[in-house]
Amino acid sequence: xxxxxxxxxxxxxxxxxxxxxxxxxxxxxxxxxxxxxxxxxxxxxxxxxxxxxxxxxxxxxxxxxxxxxxxxxxxxxxxxxxxxxxxxxxxxxxxxxxxxxxxxxxxxxxxxxxxxxxxxxxxxxxxxxxxxxxxxxxxxxxxxxxxxxxxxxxxxxxxxxxxxxxxxxxxxxxxxxxxxxxxxxxxxxxxxxxxxxxxxxxxxxxxxxxxxxxxxxxxxxxxxxxxxxxxxxxxxxxxxxxxxxxxxxxxxxxxxxxxxxxxxxxxxxxxxxxxxxxxxxxxxxxxxxxxxxxxxxxxxxxxxxxxxxxxxxxxxxx
Length: 318
Known about the structure:
Blueprint: E1 3-13, E2 18-25, E3 38-43, E4 49-53, E5 63-68, H1 77-83, E6 89-93, E7 96-97, E8 107-113, H2 117-129, E9 134-140, H3 149-155, E10 162-166, H4 170-181, E11 188-193, H5 196-210, E12 215-218, E13 233-237, E14 242-245, H6 251-257, E15 275-280, E16 283-284, H7 292-297, E17 300-302, E18 307-308, E19 312-316
Parallel strand pairs: 8-9, 8-11, 9-10, 11-12, 13-19
Antiparallel strand pairs: 1-2, 1-6, 2-5, 3-4, 3-6, 3-7, 13-14, 15-17, 15-19, 16-18
Helix pairs in contact: 4-5
């Protein structure tokens, strides 16, 4: 995937563990509007690539990302926090979107926790500017640990649509989700981002009410995969080339080793960069980038982690 050289124009402390970085094109031009809810890959100072949601209004001409310092970081958030300053140049990918805003929804409910607020901000900007009905629920341990509180309380323009939930114990969050879901009608679409356990609570409350197709989720954490029963299978490309995929190798790895150009980034089934079309066969989806409805259609798959339910797949290079 094409990379763009950027310059860090501003760095701010959002909380004690979250920094924001304003990124501008190094050549002085402006970025085209990005889709609401989109994210980019950032190649950090240690050459580690990580995905970060854009949290600016889609048409600002520059990118704003928020990075939480993770305790176990070995080159991702630690390098950005410790080595990146105003004037630093980095490389970023073009925006990609896993949280597409439904155009046929009557109302939108955005539910975020912690650093998961980042994609919801750009979605909220977009919905506000189009005069679309929405509400944003933000969960955090405390006001001090919540990012973008000043923006959301005073400067965003959609303050009346924001609901804060600070200091709610994990055991009580589910009841709040259930109460919120009771007001969700047939035309409501729900979007969520945050820790895995939190998003599961949001899903369990809303999905039975609105249906899986109207529930939108974004993961930036890979889930553990049990590969103990994996077997070999065959992949044919629409070009006619055929490859054997061993039990212990991914489709992406085999294709790249044989000179087939497949864009990749996370290689964990999160970012969606390696998605290919499925022309024949039934994929065994193991990713966190495709939506429930996209997986049900079985016409595309994340080739870095997913495999097949049968013996053979015919794939189309996007």
